[in-house]
């Protein structure tokens, strides 16, 4: 039906001639590219490689903890494993994979031909990539004097004074600092690019009030990156000055304060959670309406809630620090702020439910992941509210309950939504569909594994198992639970392997997708799959929030209702 | 397919002209927000450690008001603004004059900072390792001075290009973006001046 529409014929369908090229030419092409789509794909590929590395680290941690009194790895190696796992997952998986999707999708969705600053875009990618390589180079180059370690072993939030030269001799901590610092520069560059692109390169008629919600969320995320990554960068500069020039920012012997580092780190650290989760919301915002065959419910409320989350998330950081002893006023403020942030988040969940409600739901793989996201994100939010109460937090801070809570957010919400996004946009990127059967295997194995791991992980936390312990004695009631948690981890790993296989296999053997396999409504589906390097042959003009709906239903366009 | 039509029907007639902000200005505004976040952390650290040094020298003993340098830096905001508005009117001589005096004033400011640091290090023995005051003072003022250096390099580049006659009215927007950065560096100095030299003393 769609192809009968005369407007479709206007799409530039000149087949891209692809003469066989030397490997070196292809590599040169990718290394020197400034095309937002290629940079986006490089971000995603780079993040997937690190996802596998950090996933293997998680598996090693789980083998070590599967049974009591285990000595699978040494305590020193264990410290390095959880440090590298956390740092890699946050800075070199989460950030780049979400920036990759943003890079790829934002210009296509607003009808632009590229990002606002294409060369800055390439610079940001390569500087982040260099940061990740630097972090892992520490395994080779990190050891310093006194036989002190190879990779960093200071934990992903690197509390002072452990990071001082006295307690962390050698260079592994410096590799950590520089890697995080470089990743921060790359993040600010990309966020700057996404925000500027959104504000300055929208096609005709794409008013702010007509932008797809994905673009809105990336706009808010960009703003958060500016104000969140700055403090982290500043703190890393201070740490470097402490370690190399002998300054005393976090040197308690000279009157410096270890708590100041905690504040600076979490001023970054908590907004960072929202930097990661807002894009996950963004994917769900696009997928849920298309597979419910309804327009999103409450668009203005969704935008307001996103902006609200952006602002409130700047004032909740010290809920990571209740055990420091902030005093009654501090505790009250941060408890209250943390609880308040669940209000806009709740608005979002209700709007997604209202979008699904009464819709003609299609349970394709992307939608299945989104439904799982809704369920799991709700639970993650509920344990979050439990932990936001300071007295409760005093009991459970730094226990496995906290680990279970934030992995519920990072894996249960963010990674789950990301998988949905992979299945949803893969046809646009490659021109082929991902295999649905393999997708369902991936979904069920991953979800079952996830619940085995992270549902059961709450309980040893409640029973008093602290995070980061190397091993534990038998008979504390933690044994079977830890075994289940570890088994669940391996079930997830099998699911993810199926996903990777599906990614590679569908590239050559998937069904041909065409422009618009999901019958969707946003602009990226108006261009061929994969899109040509210039995206749009002619600059589009939009008249409503769902330009392709208008196109497909000229008798009843959305623009009539604006 | 021979004739070019839009993928999306164009019915924009009657709608207001489609105008979006300049990407240079928006990009610089974003950079300024991110930089401001970095400076805020250093300022907070300075205020937090005020009076907490375990040993001397203290700011009261060694710091003097850098009035001359401050006047130079703040007036360079006016000269760079003059350079931009001159270029907008295609007045190249005015632009060269404005840029040249901005570079000169910025360099004088840097020289006063250098002199102050020499005085502190040489005469008072205050270094970054001495105490918390040294730590926070050198890092905050040094971070600002680093930004002055970056701004001066770019302004000198623009000045050199203008001298060679390669700058035209069409470039006024780019120069304006650069001037925004310079105004930001000046504004940061006002904060640093207040915190370090007025409140901190």
Word description of this protein:
The complex is a heterodimer of chains A (562) and B (201). Chain A is mostly helical and 562 residues long. Chain A has one domain: Cytochrome c oxidase-like, subunit I domain (Cytochrome C Oxidase, Chain A), CATH 1.20.210. Chain A is 65% helix and 0% strand. Chain A has helices at residues 6-9, 23-31, 36-66, 75-109, 118-141, 172-200, 213-244, 258-292, 299-312, 328-340, 342-356, 365-388, 390-396, 400-430, 436-462, 479-509, 547-552. Chain A is globular, with a radius of gyration of 24 Å. Chain A starts with 5 loop residues before the first helix and ends in a 10-residue tail after the last helix. The model of chain A is unreliable at 1-10 (pLDDT under 50). Chain B has 201 residues and is mostly helical. In chain B, helix 1 packs parallel to helix 6 and helix 3 packs antiparallel against helix 4 (92-124). Chain B is elongated, with a radius of gyration of 22 Å. Residues 1-6 of chain B have low confidence and may be disordered. Chains A and B meet through helix 6, helix 7, helix 8 and helix 17 of A and helix 1 and helix 5 of B.
